[in-house]
């Protein structure tokens, strides 16, 4: 028995030595020979390394870590630049935290791509991309997120999260914090006890969140202190408690939130009971703007939200200023657009133009607050009867996701080159979505 154990250990050490030396499979699929200077290899799990963490630790910049189907009980930290971490099957490669670890994947190096896998059952985040050491340490703030105290703002530069399923995580499914120049795309987030997708503390962000599905979360998408080339486009935010929020919060740096584009999204039916309770009691709201400024909300379809389609309000001390609501379609909401300022802090210069809507609070906002408005123009306020949020369920009990679309040619395509700065969408080319946007891949329907 001891001899057998020694032979197994020797074989494992031989495999790991081979990968480090570069004799593992390369771009041409070969499995022999040393790594030529500048060459990139594919490290396969478990064929070349027994765990994902082992494979990532062996990877050089430009390498691909390709993970075979299986359930992996580990927290993976990617600290080498320009590594691609990809599952061979999105639904069958599962990183499961078993509620025993804060994060499924933590990215702290630039140019990393995370693709085609599932992360679930983490006490904090499914995927965390960050330049903050305190965020990596995993100390959540008072209401979700991270309060980094006196830590200087340090950005992680460039990232990609693509074709990832993040479900049943205790804070956020996919979380980009103190990170810039990135893309979150073609991903699915559910069961986020705070939000499914979150972008925080980046200015200018140069971040694109596109073509994702977020459902069965407390909030579908949340952007806090996130602005400056910040685009949230073409997403399906349906069947959460709140669809989308963009807000300013003293818990994070780089106040205030400003200058984001929210365009071409389907934001509907956000009063799903079988979801985690939202910390501030939000319920039945499509879009919430809380102290955010100079944002553009363009050609979104906002439907069937029982409280309100779009709400503008202020934090205790930060006014929402200069938000533009343009060419959106509102149908079947409790109130289509509502402005409410319960404290002395009021909004200014917020305006509407070209929207298909029926009800506003105060009344006739489409006429009295028509764009453009001077920045100092005070925003009127009103009240309406808001529904009471019902009790929620633990994030661990949220319904399991259906199979989601696969990354094309996951096992035959080489590593992904993440650009230093992503190509930003042109707002004029973003269409109003149909009500059936991404319906074939989602659990919650809009009607």
Automatic annotation (TrEMBL):
InterPro entries to which the protein is assigned, alphabetical: NosD_dom, PbH1, Pectin_lyas_fold, Pectin_lyase_fold/virulence, SCF-Subunits/Alg-Epimerases
Domain (Periplasmic copper-binding protein NosD beta helix): residue spans on this chain: 167-337
Signal peptide as annotated in the record: 1-21
SUPFAM superfamilies for this protein: Pectin lyase-like
Keyword Ligase: no
Pfam families xrefs: NosD
SMART domains referenced in this protein's UniProt entry, alphabetically: PbH1
Top-rank taxon: Bacteria
Name of the protein in its database record: Periplasmic copper-binding protein NosD beta helix domain-containing protein
PROSITE patterns assigned: PROKAR_LIPOPROTEIN
Tagged with keyword Repeat: yes
Keywords noted in UniProt: Repeat, Signal
């Amino acid at each position: 028995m001891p001899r057998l154990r020694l032979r197994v250990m020797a074989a494992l050490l031989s495999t790991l030595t081979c990968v480090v030396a570069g004799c593992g499979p390369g771009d041409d699929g070969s499995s022999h020979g040393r790594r030529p200077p500048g060459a990139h290899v594919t490290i396969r799990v478990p064929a070349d390394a027994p765990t994902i963490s082992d494979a990532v630790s062996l990877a050089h910049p430009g390498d691909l870590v390709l993970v075979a189907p299986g359930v992996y009980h580990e927290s993976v930290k990617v600290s080498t630049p320009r590594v691609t971490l990809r599952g061979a099957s999105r639904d069958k490669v599962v990183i499961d935290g078993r509620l025993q670890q804060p994060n499924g994947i933590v990215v702290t190096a630039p140019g990393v791509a995370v693709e085609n896998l599932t992360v679930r059952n983490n006490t904090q985040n499914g995927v965390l991309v960050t330049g903050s050491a305190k965020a990596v340490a995993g100390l959540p703030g008072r209401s979700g997120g991270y309060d980094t105290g006196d830590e200087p703002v340090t950005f992680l530069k460039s990232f990609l999260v693509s074709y990832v399923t993040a479900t049943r995580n205790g804070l956020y499914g996919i979380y980009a914090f103190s990170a810039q120049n990135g893309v979150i795309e073609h991903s699915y987030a559910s069961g986020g006890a705070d939000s499914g997708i979150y972008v925080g503390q980046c200015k200018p962000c140069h971040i694109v969140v596109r073509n994702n599905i977020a459902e069965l979360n407390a909030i579908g998408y949340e952007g806090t202190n996130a602005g400056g080339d910040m685009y949230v486009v073409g997403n399906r935010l349906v069947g959460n408690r709140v669809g989308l929020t963009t807000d300013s919060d003293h818990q994070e740096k780089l106040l205030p939130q400003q200058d984001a584009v929210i365009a071409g999204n389907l934001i509907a039916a956000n009063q799903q009971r079988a979801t985690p309770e939202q910390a501030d009691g939000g319920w039945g709201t499509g879009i919430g703007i809380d102290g955010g400024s100079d944002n553009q909300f363009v050609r979104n379809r906002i439907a069937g939200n029982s409280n309100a389609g779009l709400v503008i309000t202020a934090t205790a001390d930060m006014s929402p200023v200069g938000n533009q609501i343009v060419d959106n379609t509102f149908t079947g909401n409790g109130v289509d657009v509502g402005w409410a300022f319960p404290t002395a802090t009021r909004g200014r210069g917020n305006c509407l133009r070209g929207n298909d809507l029926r009800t506003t609070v105060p009344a006739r906002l489409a006429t009295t607050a028509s764009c453009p408005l001077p920045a100092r123009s005070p925003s009127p306020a009103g009240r309406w009867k808001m529904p009471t949020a019902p009790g929620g369920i633990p994030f661990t009990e949220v319904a399991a996701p259906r199979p989601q679309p696969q990354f094309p040619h996951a096992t035959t395509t080489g590593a992904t080159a993440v650009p230093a700065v992503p190509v930003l969408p042109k707002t004029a080319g973003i269409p109003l979505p149909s009500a059936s946007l991404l319906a074939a891949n989602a659990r919650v329907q809009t009607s």
